[in-house]
């Protein structure tokens, strides 16, 4: 069978570009579905996605599980329709996949062909270009063609049909063209058939009016059903997950065009019921996961891939819904069967669309009268989640471990207020607990903290226990077995109680009490009713000789909303835990406690403050994220919190920890997480909670890494190329020195500067008429308003590559210039040009990308080496005070400064370990212009003027801060004959091949030491570190 003829590419209109971006979303989702198929398919299951994904990738466990659930939900409603008894057995069933992409749904169903009723036709509908490619793959795949009867390719398409068989049609049509769709349905004679329309995250990219019209048109068909799976905003667009999700789709750019008009399940149900649909059922994916996925299926998933991203998974589920509508009233649809009970998530239906499982929210009568102010303190050191924190004593806090953006962390942080007198105390950098997450840290007594358990990977729980005292860690008696996500609380007299937790896929049903003299002792539970085993629960002790246990997740994956009162009695050598059921369980507001991963502190007077976590019901609204349990009055009330953050964002309250600092402050430290495939959302700091007060209350926290102040490792300081340097070394200081200025008259002058290996501002060079000509008016005249550019649009004055506090925005060049040079605009814009023809595979080149003005700029003859070895020449324009993040480039470059003045700071490569560069990253987490003097560093600084040419050697970390709107051109050039990273390097910033290979070897070396005792492992690995450092110095 001959595949259809391929179309020739030509210039694309704006509509074609937008449609192309929408079709591009299919490429990412189909790779994720293929990852699920490869991982979870059983041996006897046919893997159809393999034909459409030529280069499979294994996605993260979170994305795998999320896409598995999406696929499972769609499969469920499709098979419900296929197994449905038609009113008339002669009626043909038709399954229409709207915006089908490369989804192999028809071939999966035809292949199974079981438990179905009636004659069935499957129709794929999508953009003609995409359908053409799908048909191309179909024709080239005999395994697919063999499933079809009388297959035929239509080239060119006949009445929009690209491919047909007795069971299958592939139709290329814009879903906004309802007139054509009606004609196609009439032509195929299916208008009066039993029709099932399905759309999985495809209509979301269409404009709202077109989708509304499509929904209304389908409702006019006599026997139609509609199932849609899409995103929604159950807590509005300010929720951190919602913001991250929308920012992701806006950046593609494929914005979700209906989501703000129909943000909630009730809105979505009304969207259909108002347009002629007789019955409408909608559930979020958490409801589907909790009620429709069997225990057997869950165990199978766990057997294939261990999973511990529960909070992030729940947030994903609570922002996606599946809806099923029928033109007639249907009392028993697939989401409303007789006897069906939703035990989690959120559910709405029409007629009488009441939430079957009510939202976890409080009433106005059940809110604490006095609210809280939340004051933000940012720190890149706290870009961690699932670490552990505790008050050390004297108002100082300790935070240990957690997961960073690339790996688990093993260091501790000391958090102290700036005014603290005893500020020279510190945590020693001596061997300690090491990297871990999901552990606990508990104050045993002032100045003494107990760290318990945790994990590395979900399959590697830890049993070691450490005591932090006098600034040093020491190992104490280990747990009987490893565990993570357990709960811990101090119970007085130097004792700590722990319960629950996980070990691999097992939930631990055990209560243990630790004391320094006795180590671990099991506590016997005495109760008529015992709390079910759980992990991720709240455990908190009061000053009234009792504690509480609440929430967590049980062995069936259900989030618990119960609460228990705990008391401890001690025998001669035993402990007994007396557990009683709390009357809080009878309150209408108890659903506020149905949480997993929440954190709690005791406030005194019988009050417990519970913060964050995820709900087993509907998404927790921002106004209900903090609740107060009054154990004496038996009340559960939500607390109003007023957050102060410069960009108005709210914290993502998962993966955080909570500490009572002193008597009147509660600190929420770290936290955040990965928002499915949309990117990370990290709190990157801490929030200090105060009671509402008339005047401002400020907390000035200082956050120190372990070893700071108490210990300073004395390292041998070297300067790059020190043996052949012609520039006099500076005295040891962290105060910035001036970048040296030199006259350059010949190529030999420049060669001597290159050999010296330090930055130099080269004077006396002619870079062309650009210095005189390139004013805003001139550039607008030459480049005009039709030229579009992609710029960084920053949220604040300093851009951070690590926190991504900027977005990419496409705008006309003329508009960008007007804003960038307008002193009253107060917008932070920055242009770093990309290749105009192929930005993903070719580096920027001023001559090719901006030919209208390229003649104004020239590389001086004295820099002939630069010209001969040029890699790229990006054009840069920035508005006033848009700080460029601290980073290093793998290639050397000359920065030709053309207009404005710019503050420029550089550090030698030997400072890189002190400048907060995460492993494998070329961008730092700090702002050198606000950080102050950084100990043991050797910065150099200058203010660049028009006509200055700065030589910047490779690997020198640097940052820029325009003092007024600036224009410049960088010319990157290759200084090595070989050794650069293999593959495309558009930005000239890919690490050297030796480093990329070396990082892989590090992992292999680490694995060689697995299984050895902790002491031996650290002893030999640290010797290897010193050995490698000696080699580097020689």
Radius of gyration over C-alpha positions, nearest whole angstrom? 32 Å
Supply the CATH class of the largest domain: Mainly Beta
- CATH superfamily annotation of the largest domain: Kelch-type beta propeller
Major sheet: size, sense and barrel closure?
10 strands, mixed
Structural class: alpha+beta
Discrete helix count:
21
The CATH architecture of the largest domain can be named as 6 Propeller
Query: If you average the pLDDT, what whole number results?
Result: 87
Q: Give the tally of β-strands.
A: 56
The fraction of residues assigned to DSSP E strands is 25-35%
What is the CATH topology descriptor of the largest domain?
A: Neuraminidase
Largest beta sheet: strand ordering: 3-4-5-2-1-6-7-9-8-10
Q: How many separate domains make up the residues?
A: 4
Helix content: 10-25%
């Amino acid at each position: 069978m001959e595949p259809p003829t391929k179309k020739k590419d030509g210039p694309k209109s704006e509509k074609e570009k937008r449609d192309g971006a929408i079709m591009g979303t299919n490429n990412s989702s189909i790779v994720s579905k293929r990852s699920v198929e490869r991982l979870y398919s059983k041996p006897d299951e046919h893997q159809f996605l393999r034909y459409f994904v030529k280069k499979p990738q294994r996605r993260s466990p979170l994305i795998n599980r999320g896409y598995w659930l999406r696929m499972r939900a769609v499969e469920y409603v499709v098979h419900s329709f296929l197994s449905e008894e038609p009113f008339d057995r002669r009626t043909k069933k038709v399954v229409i996949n709207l915006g089908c992409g490369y989804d192999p749904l028809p071939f999966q169903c035809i292949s199974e062909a079981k438990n179905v009723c009636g004659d069935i036709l499957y129709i794929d509908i999508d953009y003609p270009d995409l359908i053409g490619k799908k048909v191309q793959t179909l024709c080239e795949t005999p395994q697919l063609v063999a499933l079809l009867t009388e297959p035929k390719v239509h080239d060119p398409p006949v009445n929009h049909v690209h491919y047909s068989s007795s069971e299958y049609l592939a139709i290329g049509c814009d879903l906004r063209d309802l007139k054509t769709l009606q004609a196609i349905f009439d032509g195929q004679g299916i208008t009066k058939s039993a029709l099932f329309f399905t759309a999985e995250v495809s209509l979301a990219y269409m404009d709202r009016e077109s989708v509304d019209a499509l929904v209304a048109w389908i409702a006019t068909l006599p026997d139609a059903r509609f199932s849609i799976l899409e995103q929604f905003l159950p807590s509005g667009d300010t929720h951190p997950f919602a913001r991250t999700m929308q920012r992701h789709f806006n950046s593609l750019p494929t914005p979700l065009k209906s989501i703000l008009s129909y943000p909630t399940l009730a809105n979505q149900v009304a969207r259909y019921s108002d347009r002629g649909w007789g019955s409408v059922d909608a559930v979020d994916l958490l409801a589907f996961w909790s009620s429709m996925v069997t225990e057997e299926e869950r165990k199978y998933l766990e057997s294939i891939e261990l999973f511990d991203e529960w909070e992030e998974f729940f947030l994903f589920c609570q922002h996606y819904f599946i809806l099923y509508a029928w033109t007639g009233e249907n009392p028993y649809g697939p989401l409303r069967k007789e006897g069906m009970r939703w035990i989690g998530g959120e559910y709405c239906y029409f007629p009488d669309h009441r939430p079957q499982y009510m939202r976890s929210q409080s009433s106005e009568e059940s809110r604490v009268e006095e609210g809280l102010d939340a004051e933000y303190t940012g720190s890149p050191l706290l870009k961690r989640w699932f670490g552990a924190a505790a008050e050390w004593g004297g108002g100082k806090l300790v935070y240990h471990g957690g997961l960073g953006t690339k790996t688990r962390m093993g260091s501790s942080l000391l958090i102290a207020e700036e005014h603290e007198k005893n500020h020279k105390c510190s945590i020693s950098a001596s061997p300690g607990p090491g990297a871990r997450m999901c552990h606990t840290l508990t104050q045993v007594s002032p100045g003494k903290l107990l760290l318990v358990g945790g994990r590395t990977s979900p399959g590697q729980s830890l049993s070691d226990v450490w005591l932090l005292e006098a600034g040093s860690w020491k190992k104490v008696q280990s747990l009987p077995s490893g565990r993570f996500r357990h709960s811990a609380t101090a119970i007085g007299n130097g004792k700590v109680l722990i319960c629950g937790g996980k070990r691999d896929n097992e939930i631990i049903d055990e209560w243990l009490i630790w004391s320094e003299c006795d180590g671990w002792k099991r506590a016997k539970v005495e109760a008529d009713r015992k709390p079910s085993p759980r992990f991720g629960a709240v455990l908190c002790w009061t000053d009234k000789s009792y504690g509480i246990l609440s929430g967590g997740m049980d062995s069936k994956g259900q989030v618990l909303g119960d609460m228990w009162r705990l008391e401890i009695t001690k025998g001669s050598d035993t402990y007994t835990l007396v557990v009683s059921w709390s009357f809080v369980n009878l309150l209408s507001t108890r659903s506020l406690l149905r949480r997993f991963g929440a954190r709690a502190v005791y406030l005194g007077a019988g009050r417990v403050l519970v913060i964050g976590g995820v709900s087993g019901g509907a998404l927790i609204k921002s106004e209900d994220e903090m609740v107060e349990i009054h154990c004496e009055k038996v009340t559960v009330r939500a607390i109003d919190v007023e957050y102060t953050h410069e960009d108005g964002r709210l914290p993502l309250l998962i993966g955080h920890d909570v500490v009572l600092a002193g008597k009147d402050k509660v600190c929420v430290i770290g936290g955040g997480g990965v928002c499915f495939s949309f990117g990370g959302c990290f709190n990157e700091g801490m929030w200090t909670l105060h009671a509402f007060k008339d005047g401002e209350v400020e907390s000035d926290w200082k956050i120190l890494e372990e070893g700071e102040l108490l210990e300073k490792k004395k390292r041998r300081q070297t300067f790059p190329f020190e043996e052949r340097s012609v520039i006099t070394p500076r005295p040891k200081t962290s105060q910035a020195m001036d970048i040296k200025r030199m006259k350059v008259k010949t190529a030999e002058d420049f060669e001597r500067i290159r050999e010296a290996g330090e930055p130099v501002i080269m004077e006396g060079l002619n870079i062309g008429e650009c210095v005189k000509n390139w004013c805003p008016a001139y550039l607008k005249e030459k480049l005009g308003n039709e030229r579009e550019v992609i710029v960084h649009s920053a949220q604040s004055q300093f851009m951070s590559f690590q926190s991504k506090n900027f977005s990419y925005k496409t705008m006309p060049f003329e508009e960008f210039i007007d804003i960038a040079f307008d002193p009253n605009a107060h917008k932070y814009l920055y242009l770093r040009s990309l290749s105009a023809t192929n930005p993903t595979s070719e580096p920027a080149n001023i001559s090719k990308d901006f030919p209208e003005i390229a003649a104004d700029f020239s590389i001086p003859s004295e820099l002939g080496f630069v010209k001969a070895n040029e890699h790229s020449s990006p054009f840069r324009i920035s508005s006033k005070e848009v700080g460029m993040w601290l980073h290093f480039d793998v290639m050397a470059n000359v920065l030709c400064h053309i207009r404005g003045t710019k503050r420029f700071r550089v550090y030698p490569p030997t400072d890189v370990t002190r400048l907060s560069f995460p492993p494998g990253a070329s961008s730092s987490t700090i702002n050198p212009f606000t950080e102050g003097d950084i100990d043991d560093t050797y910065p150099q600084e200058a203010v660049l003027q028009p006509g200055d040419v700065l030589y910047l050697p490779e690997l020198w970390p640097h940052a820029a801060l325009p003092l007024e709107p600036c224009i410049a051109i960088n010319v990157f050039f290759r200084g090595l004959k070989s050794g650069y990273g293999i593959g495309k390097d558009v930005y000239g910033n890919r690490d050297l091949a030796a480093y990329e290979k070396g990082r892989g070897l590090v992992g292999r070396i680490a694995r060689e030491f697995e299984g050895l005792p902790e002491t031996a492992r650290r002893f030999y690995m640290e010797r290897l570190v010193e050995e490698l450092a000696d080699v580097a110095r020689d």
